[in-house]
Amino acid sequence: MKLxxxxxxxxxxxMVLGLVVLYVPLILIVLNSFNSSRTFxxxxxxxxxxxxxxxxxxxxxxxxxxxxxxAGLCAMVIALVLGTMAAFAVQRFEFFGRSTISFLVVLPITxxxxxxxxxxxxxxxQVLGPFGVALGLATVIIxxxxxxxxxxYNNVQARLRRMGTSLEEASADLGANGWQTxxxxxxxxxxxxxxAGAVLAFALSFDEIVVTTFTAxxxxxxxxxxxxxxxxxxxxxxxxxVVAAVLAVVAVVPxxxxxxxxxxxxxxxx
Amino acid sequence: xxxxxxxxxxxxxxxxxxxxxxxxxxxxxxxxxDLDVEDGEFFAMLGPxxxxxxxxxxxxxxxxxxxxxxxxxxxxxxxGLPPYRRDVxxxxxxxxxxxxxxxxxxxxxxxxxxxxxxxxRVRRVGEALEMVRLGGFGDRQPxxxxxxxxxxxxxxxxxxxxxxxxxxDEPLGALDxxxxxxxxxxxxxxxxxxxxxxxxxxxxxDEALTLCDRLAVFNNGRIEQLGAAQEVYEFPASAFVxxxxxxxxxxxxxxxxxxxxxxxxxxxxxxxxAIVPRGDTVVAGVPRVDGVVRDVVYAGAxxxxxxxxxxxxxxxxxxxxxxxxxxxxxxxxxEVTLWWPAAALRRIxx
Lengths: 270, 350
What we know:
The complex is a heterodimer of chains A (270) and B (350). By secondary structure, chain A is an all-alpha fold. Chain A has helices at residues 5-32, 50-56, 59-92, 98-110, 113-127, 137-163, 166-173, 178-206, 210-215, 223-230, 237-267. Chain A has a single domain (59-267), classed as MetI-like fold, CATH 1.10.3720.10. Chain A is built from eleven helices and no strands. In chain A, helix 3 crosses helix 10 and helix 8 (178-206) runs antiparallel to helix 11. In chain B, helix 2 (103-113) crosses helix 3 (118-131) and helix 3 (118-131) packs across helix 4 (147-159). Chain B has helices at 53-61, 103-113, 118-131, 147-159, 177-194, 205-211, 229-234, 239-244, 253-260; strands spanning 15-24, 27-37, 42-46, 68-73, 76-77, 88-91, 165-169, 197-202, 214-219, 222-228, 249-251, 265-268, 274-277, 288-299, 302-308, 314-320, 335-339, 346-348. Chain B is elongated, with a radius of gyration of 24 Å. Helices cover 26% and strands 31% of the residues of chain B. Chain B folds into two domains: 15-239, P-loop containing nucleotide triphosphate hydrolases (Rossmann fold); 249-348, CATH 2.40.50.100. The chains are: A mainly alpha (270), B alpha+beta (350).
């Protein structure tokens, strides 16, 4: 499509402005992690690797990172199993209340995190508390799983819908029973969606803070919680910058993976 | 007006459908179908979209369960059997080739899930590729093939299992005209070679007449007429069949009485209607009507002449362009006489 020059210039300017707004603050974070000024004066009076050294030996940050990774992986696995099963049920079977189920599964992603947080907190503390349930890592994982399921569910059911049923019918027609069809035809078809859903679910869990606040026990500190509680401590602020810089760089990987996998399998569809 | 075809042999039919019905919610897709398809037959199910022909095919394959009635395959009741327990294979309309497998893996699939030995699988895949003239294409991905090639892979994949019956759902629908005509000849040749029963669904009456030995014309979930291709074309049982299979000039009961002095409704094929300038001599004792030419449509091999006749009738006459040019006096507004052999007039039910 050919655009008039004036429009092209305007659109380019808009795009540059948008990217600047998105990425300059991120670059600032990375820059500040090398800033020799403890108060992040700008422009930096000098560059230093001190904060990176400190961060590498900060036991609080490292253990929070570990907690976040464990919580993210567990929530991801729960989401993969339940989200995939729900997607299959809705896309491949006829049953009473199917569209209602679909709606109920997707709802948690639109609910404000604070509502989910309060609701889960009330359930864990007031209802399940007397039965010996205490806030801890497990409750964080359950809280994260509520919205991670949606991500996997949406990815898988969109893929199943696009695949249609004719490949599975062809497989059955050629003599494959239900399991053979699933492993040889359906699963390879949704594999990309599963990987993309898993990566996004992990990323979502990894940076979650609101639901986490309400579901984490006092001994549990995920990385976002750690950042939040250390950001305003002058001693820790430079280390927070380093952690944030690392996260910004690391976040590129899952997004790239997710895009690669969802893009890859669309083009190979016949 | 469903009819069960006369048995031609004493052998058990490959496919027997008895009182087959299928409803989806409040919609009745198939409404009482009885049908026998014999061993080695090339059978067509012809009908407009929504006439139930594809649903019948899907019930034979096992993708749909009949609401009532039964599907008997090779003498055994298969009504409740899943698709993978039926000795029937299908060529799908969209081919349904597995996108993550090569051409050879696609064809091998049915043998693999049957746990055929490796050497046999390789040999039969090779034979199947040769049969559809795709030798050397085994390592390609389905996306790298043209529509006609994909079609042949789908055919090879279904035939490699040597089923007793091959079902084809609008197999040539996605191909362009030239390729379709070529594939029709190939399909016919392959069917003669393998000698198994082919049942194919189509909405294209030309294709049905070209390919099949017998056909069933579907309308509103029922079989409107069943018979050999020539029989159905020459002796359409109803106005629907007369119009859907080929085209027809209809003479309703009222006009028939007025113009022909006969009672009943009639149809006559356009290619059987001869056209001469008014006043020319016409064979004595044949039905004739006078009319005025409304349109002359040149269509290459034939010319179609539309004539306004008496009693509000419209006739169409198809003339083969053998002489190169049509009689110049037959042009718009010309007064003409139409006539046809008495035997060309078919009495039809409404």
